[in-house]
Each structure stands twice: as C-alpha cells, then as structure tokens.
Amino acid sequence: MMGFLRAAYVVGRRDFVASVYSRYFIFFLMGPLIIIGMSILFGSVTQKVAQQNTRTRVAVVLTAPEYRAIAEARDRLADSLGPEELPEISQFEPKGDQHAQVRALLDASDKRIVAVLTGSIAHPTLTGAIEPGGGLYRHMTLIIDEALRQRAIAASGHAIPATNLEVVSSSDAAGAVAAMRAVTAGFGQLFLFFLTVLLSGMLLSNMLEEKSNKVIEVLAAAIPVDAIFVGKIVSMLAISLVGVTVWAGAALAAASLWGRGGGGLPPPAVGWPTFMILLLLYFSVNYLLLGALFLGIGSQAGSVREVQTLSMPITVGQMLIFAFASFASTSFNSPLGIAAAAFPFSSPLTMIARAAQTPELWPHAAALVWQGVWVWLVVRIGSSLFRRNVLKSGGGAAASRG
Amino acid sequence: MGDNPKVQGGYAIEAKGLVKTFDGKAAVDGIDLAVPEGSIYGILGPNGAGKTTLLRMLLGIIDPDRGERRLLGHDRPLEVANQVGYLPEERGLYPAMKTREAVAFMGALRGLPLRVGRARAEELLRDNRLGDYIDKPIKSLSKGMAQTVQLLGTIIHRPRLIVLDEPFSGLDAINQARLEALIRAEAAGGATVIFSTHVIAHAERVCERIAIIAAGRIRFDGSVAEARERLRPQVRLRTRNPEGPWRSALPAGARREGDLWQFELPPSGIEPLLKALIDGGAGIEELSIERPGLHDAFVAIAGEQAAREMQESAGMDLETAQ
Fold first, then answer.
1. What is the full DSSP assignment across B25-64?
2. Which of chain A's termini has less CB crowding within 10 Å, N or C?
3. How many Å apart are CA A10 and CA B106, to the nearest integer?
C-alpha cells in the first residue's frame, strides 16, 4: 500500500508542479475572476439599458390638474407595488384635434409610447397597443381608481387614518425556516455543480499529455496504472483547491471592499462551520468521482478532437444529474430522494442540500464512505479499460512495431 | 518454473508458453525464454515479430492471454519494478521538464528518493557530456540527447535488470557505439541486460546470448557462437585447372561462379579435401575457410524474408538517424 501511495504521489507531484509552475496557471486563476467581473459589469449595464428600453410608457393627454392627480395616484401605488411594476407616464397638453394628437404620439418612435390616455379622470379613454384585461389595462385602471378615490376623499373633507400594522418577528416558523434553508440548499448544489463542471473537465484531456509524449509506457512499466490514475486525479483536485482558495479569497476581499458580507444566505441546518466543511468534502468527493470517470473516458481518446467530441455528452449528462439532484432535494426520504443520495454521481449534490435542510450528521458520514467506495471502483474500472484498450500492439499511443 | 524465487546464479527472466493475441492475431505465440542473470541477451527479429509485445508482457505492462512469466523470481513483475529499468521503443519525456528533473523523476518512479535522484542525475548527465543541459528543458535537446537522457533515467536507480526495446533505433553511429559501451559497462557491474533489435550487427557485437524471433515465435535461443555453429564453415576455392579428377572430391552441394567454387566444409574436415585437390592436380590458386556470420545464421534460422525485413528496418533506422 505504501508503494502504491508513493507511486501515486510521484505522478501527482509531477502533475501539480507542472501545472502550478506553468505560466498558464495564472490564466487558470484569473479566468473565472475575469468572467465573473465582466458578467457583473456588462450585466448591470445591460440590465439598466434593458429596463430603460422595455418599460411601458403611457402618454397622458389631460389638463395639468388632472395629470397631477394621476401622477400622485401612481406615486402612491408605486410605494407599495414598486415603481418598476407600474407604467411610466408623461403629460401632454390637450390640443385641438385630439384624434390627430393621439395618432401623432403613437407614431412617434422616439417617445416609445405604448398607449395614450385621453378624456378625463371621470371618463378616461386608453388608446394604443393594449388588451382589455391585460397588464397595462389593469395597472391604468388601478391608477385611475386611486385618483378617483383620492378626489372623493378630498371632496368629503375626511382623512382616512394611516394603517398602523404592528409586527412581531419570528424567524423559526416552520414554513419560513424550510423556505430559507431551501435557498441555502440550492446555493450549495449550484456551487458544487458549477465548480465541479468548471474544474473536472480538465481531466478529460489529462492522459493525452502522457499519450502524446509517449511517457505512458514508462509510467505503466514502473507503477500500477491505478496509481497513475489516483495520482493524476488527486493532483488535479489539489490544483483545483488552490484555485478555489484564490477565488474565495478574492470574493471575500471584494465583499469586504464593498461592505457586503456573505450573510445574505439563510443559515443551514447543520450550522455554517459544519456546512462549509461538508461543502469542501462533497466538492472533493464529487471532483474525485467525476474526475475518475472523465480520466477513464478521456484515456480512451487518442486526440484532442476525440476529447472535444466526448465533452458535449458528458456536459449534458452532468446537467441531467444536477437536475435529478435538485428535484430530489425537496424530499430526502422519498424513494426519489434516497435514489439521488444513493446514485454515486448525484449523491454529493443531494447530500449538500440535505446538510442545508436537516441537522443529522450521520447520513453524511455514510454518504462520504459510500462515495469514496465509488471513487475507488471508478478508478479501477477506468485503469482496467486503459490497460486493456490502450497499452496494446497494433493501435493507440503505445502501439508496438516490434 | 519453481515456486521459490531463486535468482542468484539463476535466471533474471523466465517465461513459459507466453501467448498474446490482438484482434484475433497472435502477436506472441507460445514463447519460452530464460535469460541468465548477469548476461547481455539480445532479442532479434524484424518489425512486427512480437519483440515489443514480449517485452511488455515480461515487464507486466500487459498481461499474457496464456503462459507464465517470472521477473527476478517474481510472478508479478510490478513487485520488482524498483529493480528493473526499461527503455521503451516509443521514447517519451515531458518536453517542459528540466533534464535533471526528468532523469530524477524516472528514478522516483522506481523508488529512488527525489533528492538522491537529482544528485545522481546531475552526475550521470555530466558523465555523459550533458552537463551544460542540466537545467535546460527537454524540448531544447536534440533527439539523440533526449534519447540519452531517457537511457540515463532507465539506469539511474541502478537496476538489476535493464530492458531496452530497440535502444539503437534512431541513434547515429557515435551514439550507437556509446550505447554499446554503456550496455557492456552495466553488465560488467552485475546487471542483466536484455534488448531487442532488428540490427544483427549490434547483437553480434554486444550479446552473449540471443533469441531469434519471427512471427511471434522463438526460432533460436542460445549463444551467438551456437547460432553460427548452426551453419558449416564456407569454403572458397579457385583452381588453375577447371577440370580434372579433383572435381570428384568436391561435396555434392558445391556451387560454381566462374572459376570460383563455394561449398560447406565437409564434416571430415579440410585435410582430406586438400589432399584430394593436390593429388587430383587442381592447381590451387585460392582456398579460404570462412566462419558464417550471425546474419547468415539468422537467414538460415528465420528465413530469407525475415532477414530482408530486418535489413529494410535497419535501413529505415539509418535514414532516421541521419
């Protein structure tokens, strides 16, 4: 066993040093940060542009007092519903030919007007791209109703007292806790999924280096193929953890710089420290599992093109597994939930969601052992296939001529 | 093969009835082999004869379909991998790795601690005129240099058994001579060296024992001298008188090319023949007895076609090296 571990260490160390001391490693580290930064930058800009371009605008062709009543009614409703929910309004003084004015407003492409309100508050007419009963119809009805109500209240001389709703906060209501923890569970799953997809794909092409450099036969003659596989997977996990550490550090630095802590997520059932440890463990096991699978599949490939061809079905498979685990995370003790926890490739995703929602720890110990067994099995199958199909005469990288 | 590993003074490699089939075709077809400890053993055969497959099976890189093998007394070759050095036919090194690290890495694969390996690698590289390249990446070396680096990686851990698959392939004449010297030096130091080649001259110069392999089977296993002894010495005779009673003294298989006769030395020796030629008035102008070379023995053992394939492969190698 010591010989096996030593052999895996020699291979893993070589891979780790070759990757981390490569000038390209900085791109690996910077890649996600650049992508996230660009996404945030362009996302906020495009969101603003999109909001400006897509908000519904209604031209209000009423006298100034009537427009003011409409505008006040809209502002009052916007306090409760949010300003984005209601259409924007702009005032236009009524002119002689009202029909022509409406037509001109609707045809003016620079004003982006969807509908025109004419007549009066008491007898309003809405002309434009609207459907009776549709969103714009309902919102405009609500605004005009509010304006009428305010006018009636003002005419009566009575003021309606403001509602004083007393609030007693209680965050441990079962429904609220479950809903909050479901958010953390979803975050945990998403985090595991993306991180694993982002990082484990590298293992698909990992054996290509040895095959194209023809080093594989030197390795296979000296140490067990299992040890080569384990060394490679563990070294790639270590490289990934270096990346995760750098990215997490950058995220924490950014959060402290902009004064926004990570306290936005509801606390998981097992508590944050345990949850973070489990997240790290499940990431590691998930990475090792998928890594072993990818390494086994990728080791059969003879060229970069074959690896690229393999990537698509593998990514689709991962997404299906993610969907399966997400679906099962709402009911852990149902047959579906148990199946998702037992199926090795969805097990880490399912179990991290469980950690967010239920406090028991023993299922995690059992799951980690179970997943570890599968890592070993997949490594054995992958290395066995590799020895059978690649290291033979008449084909493959190590083809014999003698 | 006995159950007790007893290698000292015995065999470094033993194989019995090894068979390996790929896609229904036997690459190795029932090979028996015994390589004495401390010997330099050559496996001769044309490309496609099954040499590489045989070596891979002996080393445990692939498993035989049938048969048994023992390496340094062990049934599982990887158990003694730390005592074995292997240079595969397909040379392979990591291009970005520094030369010293590459040699030390190969030692580390065979159980040599990296620190010791680095020191020893430096020493070996300097001894082999690669001192200026110790901290250079492999990709900056010439092909011959890279091959030397890999060879040094094969012996850095001082193995008891060194297995070289076509080690002379792709080397120029100077490096081939260096490699021959290195093989002899390792054997003198007590290591067993087994190498495959399709160049008969290397085997003839270096090997104590050889196996001739063709179409997955061993056709001969023994010393170079024994291989030669398979053929009778050749006699070349030129006479002044083309005809005469001396003609009846020539063996039945004698061939004539102009005034030159060639035939195998008769079992009775040269003296009775010489007497008959003189008495018969042949007028001997030239008489020589030549021992057959390993090439002649190879032709006789493996056949004309195998010999032709060997020569073609050797020609291709020469072009590659140039």
1. EEEEEEEEEEEETT-EEEEE--TTSSHHHHHHHHHTSS--
2. N
3. 10
| B262-299 residue pLDDT tens | 998 888 888 888 898 898 888 899 999 988 878 788 87
Q: At which residue do the structure tokens 């004539």 appear? A: B256
d(CA A221, CA B60): 7
Contact status, residue B108 vs residue B114, Cβ threshold 8 Å: yes
CB contact under 8 A, A224 and B78: yes
Element (H, E) at B234: strand B234-239
Q: What's the complex ipTM?
A: 0.80
Q: What is d(CA B75, CA B79) in angstroms, rounded to the nearest whole number?
A: 8
Say yes or no: B74 contacts chain A, CB-CB below 8 A.
no
How confident is the model over A61-95, as pLDDT tens digits? 999 999 999 999 999 888 888 877 888 899 998 88
Chain B residue at shortest CA distance from A220: B61
The length of chain B is 322
Which of B29, B109, B139 best probes binding to A when mutated, by most A CB atoms within 10 angstroms?
A: B109
Residue B77 has pLDDT above 60, yes or no: yes
Compute the C-alpha angle A63/A66/A67, nearest 5°: 80
Contacts of A345 (CB under 8 A, 6+ apart): A289, A290, A293, A321
Residue of B nearest to A216 (CA): B92
Query: Does B61 sit within 8 Å of A221, measured CB to CB?
Result: yes
Check if the beta carbon of residue A294 is closer than 8 Å to that of residue A204. Answer: yes
Q: Which domains does chain A possess?
A: 55-156 (3.40.50), 175-255+262-401 (no CATH)
Instruction: For the beta carbon of residue A243, count every other beta carbon within 10 angstroms.
Output: 19
Report CA-CA distances (Å) from A205 to A249, A298, A303, B1, B90: 28, 6, 9, 43, 20
Tell me the two tokens of residue B29: 């077809």
Give the CA distances from residue A150 to residues A63, A120, A157, B292, in Å, rounded to whole numbers and listed in that order: 17, 15, 11, 123
Residues of chain A with pLDDT under 50: 261-262, 393-401
Q: What is the pLDDT of residues B180-190, one digit of tens each?
A: 999 999 999 99
DSSP string, B85-150: EEE-SS----TTSBHHHHHHHHHHHTT--HHHHHHHHHHHHHHTT-GGGTTSBGGGS-HHHHHHHH
Q: Are A147 and A73 in contact (CB under 8 A)?
A: yes
Cβ <8 Å between B84 and A221: yes
Whether B276 contacts B247, CB under 8 Å:
no
Alpha-helical regions (H) of A173-224:
174-200, 206-212, 216-222
Alpha-carbon distance of A231 to A225, in angstroms, equals: 10
Task: State residue A52's pLDDT score.
Answer: 58
Residue A26's CB is within 10 A of a number of other CB atoms, namely 9
Query: How many CA atoms, within 13 angstroms, populate the side-chain half-sphere of residue A311?
Result: 15
Pairing of strands A88-91, A115-119: unpaired
Total-model pTM: 0.73
Instruction: Kindly determine whether residue B47 and residue A393, on different chains, have CB atoms separated by under 8 Å.
Output: no
Q: H or E segment at B12?
A: strand B11-22
β-strand pairing of B161-165 with B84-87: parallel
Pick the residue from chain B with its C-alpha nearest to A222. Answer: B81
Q: How far apart are CA A4 and CA A226, in angstroms?
A: 8
Nearest CA-CA partner of A203 in A114, A307, A279, A126? A307
* The residue count for chain A: 402
